[in-house]
Amino acid sequence: MNRIIPLILAVALFMENMDSTVIATSLPAIAADIQTSPIALKLALTSYLVSLAIFIPVSGWMADRFGAKTVFRAAIAVFVAGSIACAFSNSLGAFVVSRFLQGIGATAGLVVPRAIVRDLYTGNEAARLMSLLMLVFSVSPILAPLTGSFISESFGWRGVFWAVTAAALVAVVLLATSLKETRPPEERAGSSFGEALRAYRFLMGNGRFLGLTAIGSFAISSFFVYLSNSSFLLIDHYGLTPRVYSLFFSINAVSFFAMSQLTGRLAERFGLNRVVRYAVSGYAGVMLLLLALTASGFDSLGVLATLLFFGYGFVGLVIPSTSVLAMDDHGEIAGTASALLGTLQLGIGAVAMAVAGLFADGTPLPMVAGIAICAVLSFTLAQFTLGRSREAVEAPAE
């Protein structure tokens, strides 16, 4: 594997993931400054995910038709415009619209890496590369809240968006100078919009693709539920400072990262199907235990931190494995498949986040319940999608 490829892909993924997590520590300050409630401010988080879900399909087709670099250059311009608009927002409406614009630009960060992985690799090799991308997915939640809390305390919450703008500009320079197209012009020539629509219809009728996508979607949705509720819960309910909260937030990312790096090795030994089946079992078991303790009135920050740490470790195995399995048979439409996968992940995540927000009452129970429900749905879908009859197909080579 060319070692520069993970670095190049990581830049694109880091841009999107940094933006989605860097403002977590700033949410209370934003709510106070633009004079809105924490619940109303969650509209901005939801609008960001909704814009991603809407425009990722378009980005997927464009990546197949025009190439990843062209799509990224156009998207980054929109992302920068949205980031600047966020920095100047003085009302909830303006902030929601600005975040929606940011989401449009951030689509390339989600579509391009997975499409390039599938253009270049399949099977266990793809799992290794995808697990390296999960390193970025994990490190950015570690760095972003810490960075966000430092910038917010030093320059105010608007400074966070200026920092995101600068990071995006650095990212586009690196990608423009380092990334080569992985899909040659002769392959892009047949990627018309009509072909893309037919590809989407085909994928929407493919039960295995949809099942694997849904398993990963509900796994990542539990993180979205945590992201939208944790800053208010841990700062207001448990009394953590923004700086301490950012450290607490980072603990889960460490677990996610550590386990995701084992994906390739475990896939070689057990097969990707078994990795997913065992991981969702552990994920659901841990989150249900947390729900049972919380519902019984056991309110402990230490227990919450410990069980989320183990639960999100299992998620670190679920997401890269299901992504590789879902796209493995669709190399000729990698951009389209990646786009639909991302759209469904974010659409389900936005719904989960919005529903959990409706029940928020300042206590841990609504957040924990939302996370546990996502875990149970992921486990249930895995039982239907990954039957034992497929394990022979996915078994590792002797």
Compose a concise summary of this entry.
The chain contains 17 helices and no strands.
The tally of beta strands, per DSSP, is 0
Q: What proportion of the residues form beta strands (DSSP E)?
A: under 5%
Relative helix content: over 70%
> Helices and strands: which structural class?
mainly alpha
Shape: globular
Outline the structure in words.
The chain has 398 residues and is an all-alpha fold. Helices cover 84% and strands 0% of the residues. It has 17 helices and no strands. The longest helix has 33 residues. The two termini are 22 Å apart.
Characteristics:
398 residues; 0% strand; disordered C terminus
Explain the layout of strands and helices.
Elements lengths: L3 H19 L4 H7 L4 H29 L1 H20 L4 H29 L2 H33 L1 H22 L6 H4 L4 H12 L2 H31 L4 H19 L2 H8 L1 H24 L5 H27 L6 H25 L5 H22 L5 H4 L4
Helix pairs in contact: 1-5, 1-6, 1-7, 3-4, 3-5, 3-15, 4-5, 4-7, 5-6, 5-15, 6-7, 6-11, 6-12, 6-14, 10-14, 10-15, 10-16, 11-14, 12-13, 13-14, 13-16, 15-16
